[in-house]
Write a structure and sequence with these properties.
The complex is a heterodimer of chains A (488) and B (422). Chain A has 488 residues and is mainly α. Chain A is built from 23 helices and one strand. Classes of the chains: A mainly alpha (488), B alpha/beta (422). Bound molecules: iron/sulfur cluster.
Chain lengths: 488, 422
């Protein structure tokens, strides 16, 4: 602007983009969500009110099935936020007379919801105090003496971290370290070391998150659905879960390690990167009192989950641990409140209510009896085919949504096919974590891609290899390992 | 003039042209009976017409802003007469019929000043019937140089004002709307020496107007250096844009508009107009070509070419008493058209815009020029549906609806993709 030009009055300076497609097309694409929602709810209303229940299914079962189908589409398409869909399911169940409102909303009081709440609060405390970042930085600094060891340190750190906190939180925590390393080592966009670090982040988080119920919400959700469906006759403990999953995690860790090894780093010296990490650590100062206190609470909590989870309940331990954090003044309520994903908690409450309705009305058993071909009579074939479905779905939708979608009807099959419901639960929940191929599948993959090193096609290609090995690992569990430990 | 006076008086299109070109005498008791006192000698934005003009509504909803100042119109054959509250225009010929007209009372807009900066509204714009034009800044860097457009009257009678407070402009719109059925605000800006064509200066005003009123906004500016600013002009709320080439003939353009020709260039005008047609709604991009400052064939060629590009040509007739009088400039040729030539030109204009299916709703009711919509008056009888459509779109409901539809189109077409760097 030349000195003579008048100064524009203050205002917001927005950058615009013009959509030049024909207006009807623009209108349709802008309103696509609303149009689809209107159509979906229209069909739902018509089917629930005008279509008589099929033979063998009660009216309540039919309505539950309709709600389930509606939620399945909403979960798969994200036309509504996942949590909103779950809440909707919870209110539709009493609205359509499937069960009394008190009962439907009562499922929100499930132990699992409180376990997830406690675990998320602990994770929020780790992020808030900076403990998780400190641990990650120190570990990478300590073990990353060569480029390969640097990659291995990130891979194993992510895997180990995802055993005790949500894999999404671990990925978000390690990402800045990778960005720092890339910057310090001047890694270009096509750097193989850069790609290896990004893949180590994504795969470490995904694989490690499969080992314990703490890796994400899907494990606790699956256990809650299992307990509701079996009238609490069956459940999976903290250590049991890890025991059932261990061989698969080891196979995937080995596969990931081989794939990472094949990405030959283009540099030999990591001293600059280590120096950058050193500076990071120095900038953080010495561990604060609240970090130390939190570390202590975390060690005790994980120990209690492992040793006394069955007796005391995972949820009770989690909540007591949170109370200890407040008692020790490690965090404030405001800090926890800001870092908590309330949507996840709401989602689980609704999903559990819906799965309980599916099982109590017989809708789950009815639909699976019709959907599963008679040739799938063999339990192993059935579980593996469900595993494939879960693997495909999880690339497209949230892994918890896949659990909420597939597990209730699967559990309904267990009795007729003579399958231990715990095996069915694990056969669904483990592959729902195989979100290796698409960045949309899980935040860990999306964050890895955001580093700018791996391209989406590389993610898809290598992810496919991991998916294949993952399937092979589940097959190993189903045919060899679970029968060996008496689960199948 | 070979057209009979009776023919002219019976035809709102001819009558508007004649009254605007030659003026209207208001004498004796008619002058005394006029609603409000005419503000002869009043200043106003020279490009738009002045506060001393009289606003008339001629038959078929045709608005005209007519000079009545005795000094300018003493040779006009047309007179305003009245019978009580009933007003008519007639001519001096013996058997001249009377054409009933509505006299729009002079706007109190011109008598008021803005609350915040105290500038008289008349200095920042003009209101004539449904036509409201405002200039948040009348500073133009060509004005004090030899680059000044030769016909331009800006600053001749009015002091320069810089970017006014946004509230002043909002207040001007509110005052004008309180008295008139204004459905479009024309915001104009000259050459500010910036690459953006003045877009950044206008942005807060447009945003504020859109926030307060259901109203269309047209921007009258010089083309920006790059097309991103045109996206921004539309995105920030402008419903129509004018990049006025003024003369189609390249040599005459360079002679009459030396500044725009030198700094922006004819090619960029055409390029920007073409690009704007891909952003603004049909009929939302227009370009003035002044009739009478170049051969009619050149104006006609320009009109056809612009229409083919999707640009609505607006053809104001050069009026020496509006803006600056070029009659004394020996180097400027004048090509004063006859009324028949104008009739044929406007008829062809109407055909061209219809042929190219250009929307005309955004350039209606320009009381100070014969609009392409009014050009229909020269192209024979209209079908019932077209007449009804025109009537409906001229109602208060129609105007509001067109503003809302235009906002809806913007909401669909434009996405905010972040903030610009400070
Ligand atoms: S651009 Fe030309 S017409 Fe417009 S204000 Fe400047 S000199 Fe006058």
């Amino acid at each position: 602007m030349t000195p003579d030009a008048p100064e524009p009055p203050e205002g917001r300076r927005v950058r615009y983009e013009i959509d030049r497609r024909p207006l009807t097309l623009v209108l349709l694409s802008r309103l696509r969500g609303q149009i689809m929602l209107a159509a979906l709810f229209g069909v739902f209303a018509a089917v629930t009110t005008a279509v008589a229940p099929p033979e063998g299914l009660s009216a309540a079962g039919w309505k539950t099935l309709c709600i389930f189908a509606l939620c399945a589409v909403l979960w798969a398409t994200s036309l509504l936020p996942l949590a909103m869909t779950s809440l909707l399911a919870m209110c539709l169940v009493p609205l359509l007379g499937v069960m009394p409102a008190e009962q439907a909303y009562g499922y929100f009081g499930s132990k699992v919801v409180f376990f997830i709440l406690g675990a998320l609060m602990l994770a929020a405390a780790m992020a808030r105090t900076g403990l998780s970042t400190r641990v990650a930085t120190v570990v990478v600094r300590r073990f990353g003496k060569t480029p390969r060891r640097l990659v291995a340190a990130v891979f194993l750190l992510c895997a180990a971290g995802s055993c005790v906190m949500s894999e999404h939180a671990v990925a978000a925590m390690v990402l800045p370290i990778i960005v720092d390393l890339g910057r310090a080592l001047r890694l270009e966009g096509r750097s193989l070391l850069g790609k290896a670090l990004a893949f180590a982040l994504a795969w470490g988080c995904i694989i490690g998150g499969s080992l314990t119920v703490l890796g994400g919400g899907r494990g606790p959700l699956a256990i809650a659905i299992l307990e509701e469906a079996t009238g609490r006759a069956s459940s999976i403990g903290f250590l049991e879960y890890s025991l059932f999953a261990l061989p698969m995690v080891l196979i995937l860790l080995a596969t990931g390690a081989v794939l990472l090894y094949r990405l030959r780093p283009e540099i030999a010296d990591t001293s600059v990167a280590l120096q950058a990490l050193e500076e990071r650590i120095r900038a953080m100062g010495k561990a604060t009192g609240r970090e130390r206190a939190l570390a202590l609470v975390m060690v005790v909590t994980v120990g209690a989950w492992a040793l006394a989870g069955h007796e005391l309940g995972l949820d009770t331990i989690a909540i007591i641990a949170c109370a200890a954090l407040f008692a020790l003044r490690v965090v404030t309520w405001r800090e926890i409140e800001d870092g908590l994903g309330w949507g996840i908690i709401l989602m689980y409450g609704g999903a559990i209510a819906l799965s309980a309705a599916m099982s109590s009305t017989g809708a789950g058993a009815w639909i699976t009896a019709r959907l599963v071909p008679a040739t799938f009579d063999a339990p192993e074939v059935l579980l593996l085919s469900l595993c494939v479905v879960a693997m495909v779905l999880t690339e497209l939708m949230s892994n918890s949504a896949v659990v909420a979608l597939l597990l209730p009807p699967t559990l309904a099959l267990c009795q007729t096919h003579g399958i231990d419901p715990r095996a069915a639960t694990m056969a669904i929940v483990l592959p729902t974590n195989f979100a290796f191929m698409l960045p949309i599948a899980t935040p860990a993959t999306a964050l890895a891609m955001s580093t700018g090193y791996p391209t989406s096609s590389e993610i898809a290609r290598k992810g496919f290899i991991l998916d294949v090995f993952g399937f092979a690992a589940v097959a190993f569990l189903v045919f060899v390992y679970w029968p060996l430990i008496g689960l199948l | 003039m070979t057209l009979a006076v009776a023919q002219i008086l019976a035809h709102p299109g001819f009558l508007k042209l004649e009254l605007m070109r030659r003026g209207l005498r208001v004498e004796g008791d008619s002058l005394a009976a006029l609603p409000g006192t005419p503000r002869f000698g009043a200043t106003g934005h020279a490009l738009f017409g002045s506060a001393g003009d009289l606003d008339l509504e001629l038959p078929r909803g045709t608005f005209a802003t007519v000079p009545i100042e005795p000094r300018l119109v003493e040779r006009s054959p047309y007179r305003l007469v009245h019978d009580g509250d009933v007003w008519a225009v007639t001519a001096d010929a013996a058997d001249a019929p009377r054409t009933r007209v509505k006299v729009v009372p002079p706007s109190s807009f011109f008598a008021q000043r803005t609350a915040e900066s105290g500038v008289p509204f008349g200095q920042i714009g003009t209101v004539h019937g449904p036509y409201l034009a405002l200039s948040p800044t009348n500073r133009c860097q060509f004005l004090a140089t030899s680059d000044r457009c030769r016909f331009c009257g800006v600053g001749q009678k009015v002091a320069a004002h810089d970017a006014l407070p946004v509230d002043d402009i909002v207040e001007a719109v509110r005052v004008a709307r309180a008295e008139h059925d204004v459905n479009m605000v024309h915001l104009s800006v000259g050459w500010l020496g910036t690459d953006d064509g003045g877009v950044q200066v206008l942005e807060p005003y447009i945003a504020a107007i859109k926030r307060h009123f259901d109203i269309l906004v047209a921007v009258d500016a010089l083309p920006p250096k790059d097309d991103g600013w045109i996206d921004r002009t539309y995105g920030m709320g402008a419903d129509a844009i004018s990049y006025n080439l003024e003369l189609w003939d390249p040599a005459l353009f360079a002679q009459i508009c030396p500044g725009p020709a030198r700094v922006i260039g004819r090619e960029r005008f055409l390029e920007a107009l073409g690009y704007a047609t891909t952003v603004f709604p049909s009929g939302g991009v227009n370009c003035h070509l002044i009739v009478g400052l170049e051969p009619l064939a050149s104006t006609r060629a320009g009109m056809e070419a612009l229409a083919r590009m999707g640009v609505v040509p607006v053809l104001p007739v050069y009026r020496p008493f509006k803006g600056r009088d070029l009659r004394a400039d020996g180097d400027v040729a004048r090509f004063e058209p006859t009324l028949e030539e104008l009739r044929d030109l406007y008829r062809d204009l109407h055909r061209a815009v219809r042929r190219e299916k250009l929307g005309l709703g955004l350039v209606r009711d320009l009381a100070t020029v014969t609009t392409p919509v009014e050009a229909r008056l020269f192209s024979g009888p209209e079908g019932l549906f077209r007449r009804l459509g025109h009537r409906l779109s001229g109602t208060r409901f129609g105007r509001r609806t067109s503003a809302r539809l235009s906002d809806l189109r913007r909401a669909l077409r434009v996405r905010e993709v972040g903030l610009l760097d400070p």
